[in-house]
């Protein structure tokens, strides 16, 4: 009798035979698992890289959305403000036109009267009424609450009467003897250029455009003429008089050499009026604004709700900084570096509260002491 085949009964051989199928299945399953894992990993990487791109795009869109929203908001605010002001101007336009017509009916329509006598009277009235109020504060050294707004505390408290009288004398000389002839000359120049009809007032929007040009022309004219006056020779013989006051007061705005008064004070203000061929009413408005601004710049007080005059006060203190009116050309030419590194620059803001700037932005030594 023949024996069974050994390989069928051998356990050692049977086990591989029995186990061959499962080993192959496990290997295939493992390969499938590894392939699936690799595909999943690849897909995950692709998803991750794909997720990064939308994130960058979404960030970009967010930035664009914020910027565009801000621009739209600003445009809407500007248009709304302009619309309300236009409505006010339009609603009161008849009123102002009626008052202007009444003035013309009384004074007549001679351009000489409006271009010569008008600016002269306006200059004297605005300068001495507003400048006089500041002077009273400086002479009386009261009230104490106002002294808290002094840019340079301890100076001109009270102002020296002899120095003040010298200033008043020189200012009157510049206004009457120097500026009056220039006003007449400016009338002749405007007559040559051709000015608009006297009786019809300009529109509100056009007044805004002209005032913007006037401000720009003054910034250019004043900056370069003022900086030229700081030439060693010109400073010594011309501009030094104005810088006698390292801590200025309001009425020192026109305390200067006659040449400087014409070249650097009056001419830059007139440039925009000539370029735009402004209506005399717009010219009056602009002249008043310019006089009020220069009085404030020299006042020595940084009062709330008024434009900051820290820059020009710093110019009187340091001599070679902040030559301009707006500060735009100073930034471009780098003539405000020392100012921007000073504590005065932190105070160079429009104060919208009654807190004095020196208390809102105290000196660094006082900050360290606290």
Automatic annotation (TrEMBL):
Source organism, top-level taxon: Eukaryota
Listed GO CC annotations: membrane
Region Disordered, annotated ranges: 1-20
Gene Ontology biological process terms, A to Z: lipid biosynthetic process
InterPro entries tied to this protein: Fatty_acid_hydroxylase, Sterol_Desaturase_Related
Annotated compartments: Membrane
One Pfam family in the UniProt entry: FA_hydroxylase
Keywords: Membrane, Transmembrane, Transmembrane helix
Transmembrane segments: 56-77, 114-137, 167-184, 204-224, 269-295
Stretches assigned to the Fatty acid hydroxylase domain: 212-335
Gene Ontology MF terms in the entry: iron ion binding; oxidoreductase activity
Name this protein carries in UniProt: Fatty acid hydroxylase domain-containing protein
Protein species of origin: Coptotermes formosanus
């Amino acid at each position: 009798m023949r024996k069974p085949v050994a390989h069928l009964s051998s356990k050692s051989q049977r086990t591989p035979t029995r186990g061959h199928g499962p080993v192959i299945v496990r290997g295939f399953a493992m390969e499938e698992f590894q392939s699936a894992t690799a595909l999943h990993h690849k897909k995950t990487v692709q998803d991750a890289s794909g997720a990064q791109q939308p994130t960058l795009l979404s960030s970009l869109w967010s930035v664009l959305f914020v910027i565009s929203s801000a621009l739209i908001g600003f445009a809407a605010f500007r248009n709304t403000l302009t619309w309300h002001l236009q409505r006010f101007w339009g609603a009161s336009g008849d009123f102002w036109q009626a008052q202007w017509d009444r003035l013309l009916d009384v004074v007549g329509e001679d351009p000489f009267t409006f271009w010569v006598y008008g600016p002269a009277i306006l200059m004297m009235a605005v300068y001495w009424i507003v400048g006089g109020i500041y002077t009273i504060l400086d002479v009386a050294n009261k009230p104490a609450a106002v002294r808290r707004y002094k840019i340079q505390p301890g100076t001109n408290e009270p102002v020296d009467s002899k120095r003040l009288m010298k200033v008043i004398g020189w200012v009157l000389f510049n206004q009457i003897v120097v500026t009056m002839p220039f006003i007449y000359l400016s009338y002749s120049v405007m007559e040559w250029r051709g000015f608009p009809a006297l009786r019809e007032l300009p529109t509100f929007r056009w007044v805004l455009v002209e005032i913007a040009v006037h401000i720009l022309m003054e910034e250019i004219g004043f900056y370069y003429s003022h900086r030229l006056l700081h030439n060693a020779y010109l400073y010594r013989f011309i501009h030094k008089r104005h810088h006698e006051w390292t801590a200025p007061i309001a009425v020192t705005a026109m305390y200067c050499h006659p040449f400087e008064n014409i070249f650097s004070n009056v001419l830059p203000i007139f440039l925009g009026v000539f370029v735009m061929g402004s209506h005399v009413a717009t010219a009056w408005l602009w002249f008043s604004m310019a006089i009020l601004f220069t009085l404030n710049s020299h006042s020595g007080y940084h009062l709330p709700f008024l434009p900051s005059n820290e820059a020009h006060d710093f110019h009187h203190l340091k001599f070679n900084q902040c030559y301009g009116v707006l500060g735009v050309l100073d930034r471009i030419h780098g003539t405000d570096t020392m100012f921007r590194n000073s504590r005065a620059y932190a105070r160079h803001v429009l104060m919208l509260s009654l807190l004095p700037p020196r208390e809102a932005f105290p000196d660094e030594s006082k900050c360290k002491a606290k």
